[in-house]
Amino acid sequence: MAVTTQQLIQWKQQGRSIVALTAWDYAIAQLLDATGVDLILVGDSLAVVLGYETTLPVTLEEMIHHAKAVRRGVKNALVVVDLPFLTYQESIQQAMQSAGRVLKETGAQAVKLEGGYPAMVETIERLVQAGIPVMGHVGLTPQSVHQLGLRQQGKSPEAGERILNEAIALEQAGVFSIVLEHIPAHLALQITQKLRIPTIGIGAGSDCDGQVLVTADILGLSEKQPPFAKVYTNLRETITKAVQNYSVEVRDRQFP
Ligand code: KIV
């Protein structure tokens, strides 16, 4: 049965951990879905595969193009799509148009927006009222890289309290789940215990209601991984060897 936003909340109540990964194309989405992954995020980490240094240059058109491909490969997982930088921060109307386009044009079930400051909470509340399922994202928010860097967030008691309050405000605004990125494990635990909706951690310890990682990182495809990613296989090495073998065989006229 296809995963729904309500299902994720029930899984939290039942203590069943949620498995989430990113996908940027049809082939990977199909593989992830067939293994039974619960949630597939078309993250704006799409920047990696497009060769951008940060997520900032990613456009709404690019997100929609890739999300359509991912959606075609998914039968069961819940598909969530990131709204990219400056396609939702300017105004509620801009956010409504961008989120509406993503849902209408890609067939994805939800969008993810970064930030839990008051204006963003208000925007998210309006999206939810309009029937758009929204996932929140606090802690390290990569679209603010030029303000925050890629450092762990919420280390001081004051910063931790601010992130906790943002998470509470997002829950009140109606998000169905929230990504906690690169914050101390004790803070993630505190937020997870406080909220009714599931927390999905990335670099936030093992006490979140689920975990997400960038698939290219776990497959060893990324040029560099964040410190909290775990590399489960080294596809860069596998691909390099395969291509080298093919090249040798073509040059030696052994293939075909
Ligand atoms: O863009 C992305 O892939 C993300 C995850 C790292 C949470 O937002």
Give a written overview of the molecule:
The protein has 256 residues and is an alpha/beta fold. 45% of the residues lie in helices and 14% in strands. An eight-stranded parallel β-barrel has the order 1-2-3-4-5-6-7-8, surrounded by seven helices. Helix 9 links the parallel strand 6 and strand 7. Helix 5 packs across helix 6. The chain starts with a helix and ends in a 5-residue tail after the last helix. 3-methyl-2-oxobutanoic acid (KIV) binds next to strand 6.
Write the layout of secondary structure elements.
Elements lengths: L4 H10 L3 E5 L3 H10 L3 E4 L4 H4 L9 H13 L5 E5 L9 H15 L3 E3 L5 H12 L4 E6 L5 H4 L8 H17 L3 E5 L3 H10 L4 E4 L7 E4 L1 H4 L16 H17 L5
Parallel strand pairs: 1-2, 1-8, 2-3, 3-4, 4-5, 5-6, 6-7, 7-8
Helix pairs in contact: 2-4, 4-5, 5-6, 6-8, 8-9
Bound molecules: 3-methyl-2-oxobutanoic acid.
3-methyl-2-oxobutanoic acid (KIV) binds next to strand 6.
